[in-house]
Amino acid sequence: MKHYFIAVTIFCAIITRISCCDVVKLTFPSGFRIGTASASYQVEGAWNVSDKGENVWDHWTHNHPELITDGRNGDVACNSYYKYKEDVALIKNIGFDYYRFSISWSRVLPTGFANVISEDGLQYYKNLTAELVANGIEPVVTIYHWDHPQVIENMGGWTNELIVDWFVAYARILFEALGDSVKRWITINEPDTFCEAGYEGTTKAPGKVISGIGKYLCGHNVLKAHAKTYRMYDEEFRESQQGEVSIVLALASYVATNSSDTESVETAFQFNCGWMAHPLYFGDYPEVMKTRVALVSEYQGYPRSRLPEFSDEWIAIINGTNDYFGVNHYSTNLVYPDPAEELGVYRIDSGVIRTIDFSWPATASNWFYVYPPGFGVLLRWIRDEYNNPPVWITENGYSDSGQLDDYERISYYYDYIKEMLIALKRDGCNVEAYTVWSILDNFEWHAGYTERFGITHVEFDDADTNRTAKLSQNWWMKVLSKRKLQSVPTNTAAAARTLLPWQK
């Protein structure tokens, strides 16, 4: 028996060494997909071309420029409506496998409803999709990325349950028009973000403050709209088109300020990831979420929980409506219990305070600090919580002020992708794809053009919106040609960085 244990120990050591060596190589597995992404309002421009209708971001930026850091908008943005062929050529030249883009609801349906379809609007997306396919690039299409028609918002937007059927009708038109070419669909991008920031705050359109209620009502209707769209695709299109449909979540990672405080970490994950993912995989909201929101609602004097309930019928409809797990990840939060609760005061639904370790490297975004190990923590949590589903990283990237010599961006990509590969190879996380955010500098929502995520610089003050490669674009070309992470170039003299005209 002694010799047996020695042999097993040696065998395990050898396997671990092989596994670690494989990780250190930092190569992408065979079949692993790498793409890049954008979103309609952030890049298209052409805000009032042809018969396009007004969307919530058109309305919000035109009426409240004071809420945008630089007072600007996406009226022109990257001008991709006119320059899509140039963008596709760029994506092909860099070597990406796929391009994730979104469709503007109000460009396709000017009135917001399916009774009026814009031929010009739909043709633009047909042309873009055809151009991608002709160049060997897979189109990955997001049906909704935050820019619903203003007319629908006038009727309550995502807080009105009628939006569920309006969204399904919109999605059906896209499946009919593009489904022969598009095999990977995303119904809705980051509902956790726009529901909270758009219906309980003023950092995202429509900028309504419905405290304590707005985000949950929005999220409830998002889940219904996603699930009914998924079921409609099942019934009407899946057999003939053979595509996959999922939702994409904005997921932070969490680390406790006290290493023994596993409860705060778990609760934070359930309130962030579980809010949307739990219904998709188990049919209903996490138990801790239902319990906590009911508790705090009662403390605040509400007659019932502010978190809506699903009927048995809706639980059956929603459960199992995710073909893959879409993850947008950027950063990590520190968490600890709210000390006010020791005094019997309930201020936060989760009971957990989220903060930042300010010793972590900062970015141009005040919410975004760099902590690569958090990426692995998140991926392993998803693996354990949801039975290791196939995962697509649908956004990951770095914000700066726009420099061409973007060494920090390359360092970010290297460190985060390394953590992803360790989670994939060593820890068995079922990650199938990784998406670079973003192919272009673009309109960064409430930050306007003051924060840049692109690997390609766009000159927004030039009528031609000219594109210029950044250092990170060249780095990605090498990564994609080798299918392996490349070393981070050394910044030998920060003072020698290229300055753009607006930086001088």
Number of helices: 17
Q: Look up the CATH topology.
A: TIM Barrel
Strands in their spatial order, largest beta sheet: 1-2-3-4-5-7-10-11
Report the mean per-residue pLDDT as an integer.
Answer: 94
- Supply the number of structural domains: 1
CATH architectural type: Alpha-Beta Barrel
SSE string = HEHHHEHHEHHEHHHEEHHHEEEHEHEEEH
The total of beta strands comes to: 13
Round the Cα radius of gyration to an integer and report it. 23 Å
Determine and state the CATH class: Alpha Beta
Strand content: 5-15%
The major sheet is characterized as: 8 strands, parallel, barrel
Could you tell me how far the N terminus lies from the C terminus, measured between alpha carbons in angstroms? Answer: 73 Å
Any idea what the shape is?
A: globular
* Structural class by SSE content: alpha/beta
Q: CATH homologous superfamily name? A: Glycosidases
Pick out the low-confidence regions. Answer: 1-21, 494-504
Helical percent range?
40-55%
InterPro entries: GH (IPR017853), Glyco_hydro_1 (IPR001360)
Protein name: Myrosinase 1
Family: Belongs to the glycosyl hydrolase 1 family.
GO molecular function: beta-glucosidase activity
